[in-house]
């Protein structure tokens, strides 16, 4: 009877490592391969000499592709076949998926060391990685070859991918295969796919991705990191400077630094649906916000709603009249009574927005509901965006950043402490 590995009563990882310890080569076929998960097994592969008969051949079957391109790719294979140019393009696209893996999560010293070992093992031909492109391949098969005349191949077959979770966590279902005839058939099945013309070697690309990532052995000079950040920030600024023109009525009233700020703010407003102008007192936030609103009214025919403290309503009424804004001004103390009955305004200016740092407040919820309902662009004005905690700032940004928006970062430490299920629940 085969052993059952469900990662609950019996975990696959120890059995796999125990067999690897006495093996001299291996063939793995998995749907998904996590580069950082390789460190669980790399020590057992490190002792192998490398080359055709002393390496781990890793066949990956289900890297992500956009659905339309995947369907198109499968259709090409099933009919006329993929030409070399198409195959190389898909290979490059899939290599980028591996690169994106390294951008997720907070890097650790163990991850860094593991990735460096993987790159070195690929270069030494101890690990060879291919992508199977003929069709989506969900199989999870681990074949280990050892110098035993009676039982030379041991197999593990089931649902576990080559990831930390697949080998040692979550519910899985795997069995060991010890029957000689069955193992030979599985080996022939693997070789048929390994030798398929639509099975492409991606080993060099993976090693290069690691060697150019944060796990590289040669440290990147801090100055280069600074230049890279400055370049991307400057790209945003240049886009704004080129994209928008200052209305003529503001040309003589704005200083050069204010004109640049207005254009960049308009770019962020247009691209992200909101912007925070956080200059200190006296640098002209009110005039700059008025100029941005004028650009939006002229270019996109928006109407403006200005919400401000009661003592600033007269000032904003004067600005509205002087610069011809199609705007309504209400005090923040009136929003609960007036806002639900106001007609739609597509642009909202929130002056002294730091007063809205409490997401649980009634005033905050009324304003947020109005913004969501009317799909408003938002200009936040404050000289003190950060008061006591970072939540002060994040709550203001939440007025125009949707709750489910992917920011490209996650609170990795918090997730590791409380678990992803509990984090999602909260």
Describe this entry's structure for a reader.
With 426 residues, the chain is of the alpha/beta class. It is 46% helix and 15% strand. The protein has 18 helices and 13 strands. The protein has helices at residues 12-21, 42-46, 67-78, 84-101, 109-123, 164-168, 180-194, 203-211, 222-243, 248-251, 256-272, 285-300, 313-323, 335-338, 362-374, 390-397, 412-418, 420-425; strands spanning 4-5, 25-30, 56-60, 127-132, 140-145, 153-158, 174-177, 199-201, 274-277, 304-308, 327-331, 347-351, 377-381. The strands form 2 sheets. An 8-stranded mixed beta sheet has the order 1-7-6-5-2-3-4-8, with helices on both faces. A 5-stranded parallel beta sheet has the order 9-13-12-10-11.
Mean pLDDT: 85
Largest sheet: spatial strand order:
1-7-6-5-2-3-4-8
Percent of residues in helical segments?
Answer: 40-55%
What ranges have pLDDT less than 50 throughout 5 or more consecutive residues? Answer: 65-71, 76-80
Binned strand content: 5-15%
How far is it from the N-terminal to the C-terminal residue, by CA? 44 Å
Cα-atom radius of gyration: 29 Å
Oligomer state equals single chain
Number of helices: 18
Number of strands: 13
Shape designation: elongated
Which sheet architecture does the biggest sheet show? 8 strands, mixed
Structural class: alpha/beta
């Amino acid at each position: 009877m085969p052993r059952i590995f469900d990662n609950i009563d019996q975990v696959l990882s120890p059995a796999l490592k125990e067999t690897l310890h006495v093996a001299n080569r291996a063939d793995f076929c998995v749907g998904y391969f996590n580069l950082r998960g390789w460190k669980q097994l790399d020590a057992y592969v490190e002792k192998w000499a490398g080359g055709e008969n002393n390496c781990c051949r890793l066949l990956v079957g289900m890297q992500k592709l956009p659905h339309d391109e995947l369907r198109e790719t499968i259709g090409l294979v099933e009919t006329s076949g993929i030409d070399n140019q198409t195959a190389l393009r898909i290979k490059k696209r899939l290599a980028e998926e591996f690169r994106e893996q390294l951008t997720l999560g907070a890097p650790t010293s163990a991850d860094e060391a593991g990735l460096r070992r993987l790159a070195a093992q690929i270069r030494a031909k101890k690990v060879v990685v291919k992508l199977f492109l003929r069709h989506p391949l969900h199989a999870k098969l681990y074949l280990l070859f050892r110098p035993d005349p009676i039982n030379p191949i041991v197999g593990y077959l089931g649902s576990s991918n080559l990831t930390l979770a697949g080998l040692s966590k979550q519910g899985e279902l795997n069995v060991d295969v010890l029957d000689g005839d069955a193992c030979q058939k599985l080996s022939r099945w693997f070789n048929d796919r390994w030798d398929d013309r639509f099975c492409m070697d991606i080993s060099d690309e993976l090693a290069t991705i690691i060697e150019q990532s944060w796990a590289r052995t040669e440290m990147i000079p801090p100055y280069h990191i600074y230049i890279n950040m400055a370049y991307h920030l400057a790209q945003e600024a240049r886009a704004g400077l080129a994209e928008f023109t200052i209305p003529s009525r503001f040309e003589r009233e704005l200083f050069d630094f204010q004109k640049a700020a207005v254009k960049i703010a308009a770019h962020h407003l247009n691209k992200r649906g909101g912007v925070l102008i956080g200059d200190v007192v006296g640098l002209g936030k009110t005039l700059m916000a008025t100029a941005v609103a004028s650009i939006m009214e002229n270019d996109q025919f928006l109407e403006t709603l200005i919400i401000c403290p009661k003592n600033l309503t007269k000032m904003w009424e004067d600005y509205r009249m002087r610069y011809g804004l199609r705007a309504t001004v209400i005090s923040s103390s009136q929003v609960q009574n007036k806002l639900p009955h106001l007609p739609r305004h597509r642009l909202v200016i929130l002056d002294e927005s730091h007063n809205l740092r409490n997401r649980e407040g009634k005033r905050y919820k009324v304003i947020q509901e109005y913004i969501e309902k009317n799909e408003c662009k938002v200009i936040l004005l404050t000289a003190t965006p950060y008061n006591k905690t970072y939540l002060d700032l994040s709550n203001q940004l939440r007025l125009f950043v949707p709750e489910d928006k992917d920011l490209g970062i996650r609170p990795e430490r918090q997730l590791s402490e409380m678990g992803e299920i509990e984090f999602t629940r909260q």
